[in-house]
Write a structure and sequence with these properties.
Chain lengths: 121, 121
DNA sequence: CCTATACTTCGTCATATAACGAAGTATACA
DNA sequence: TGTATACTTCGTTATATGACGAAGTATAGG
């Protein structure tokens, strides 16, 4: 029950659902998510840790960068079905479609320019 | 997105998930849910209205009694998939199994005795 | 080493949510 | 036409959550 509730709670925040769907095309690092969500780094980090604890994302550290991605096929069925459900339910949502375009844009950016998100504040 | 978030939020509370699963064997009236959940009538009523707004349950009024049931096949796909997901995820949960037994017990009770839940407080 | 970078953790604040009891509404029955 | 019943709505309170900035940690590069 706790596992299930953690997943449901993780999915009950718009920014977390957006972040999750942004990973549909492949892994992203935190600074890319910060740029697209327009939230403070600490906020995004917290959101990702909630998604991670629910097993809805995997994390991989490479040097200074932390990459997040969707779960693989080995993940619990409960998790995979949740991801499926989200994708079916909101793939056509206005915000999610716009975010898909953002992912393409941000993926092309130079990382130096991208991580300017830290310098803004 | 809002529709999806309403469903996710509705599913992120243990008592609401329990109530939802209690309806698996068929419709129940509010006083039966009050008895099984062990919560105040106003609390259960609020929970059911949240589930209802998310379209996760249907409501039918018959005389003084309000009956709640799971959605039928005409419900939005998003809703049906959510219900499926919950059922697959927690059907074997200890609490949910125990609740299943409670449903059988309560269904056999005389309504006069049952609605004593109002007289307790 | 020392500094910059890329996060994460912590502390704080404002808002959201779950619980309750009291009061309100709608229906059956005397 | 009261009165009891079966909820629902409202107001309050305690706790949970999401946002931020400041401080902490880990890694790369000079």
């Amino acid at each position: 029950m706790l596992i299930f509730l953690n997943i449901a709670k993780a999915l009950s925040d718009e920014n977390r659902v957006r972040a999750l769907m942004m990973l549909s095309r492949g892994e992203l690092c935190v600074c890319q998510l910060i740029e697209m969500l327009g939230l403070a780094p600490s906020t995004v980090s917290k959101h990702m840790s909630i998604l991670r604890q629910a097993r809805l994302v995997r994390a991989r550290k490479e040097g200074r960068w932390m990459y997040y991605s969707l779960p693989d096929e080995d993940a619990p069925r409960c998790v995979l079905e949740a991801v499926q459900w989200v994708q079916n339910a909101i793939a056509k949502d206005k915000q999610i479609v716009a975010d898909g375009k953002q992912v393409k844009r941000v993926s092309k950016l130079d990382r130096d320019k991208l991580c300017a998100c830290y310098k803004k504040g």
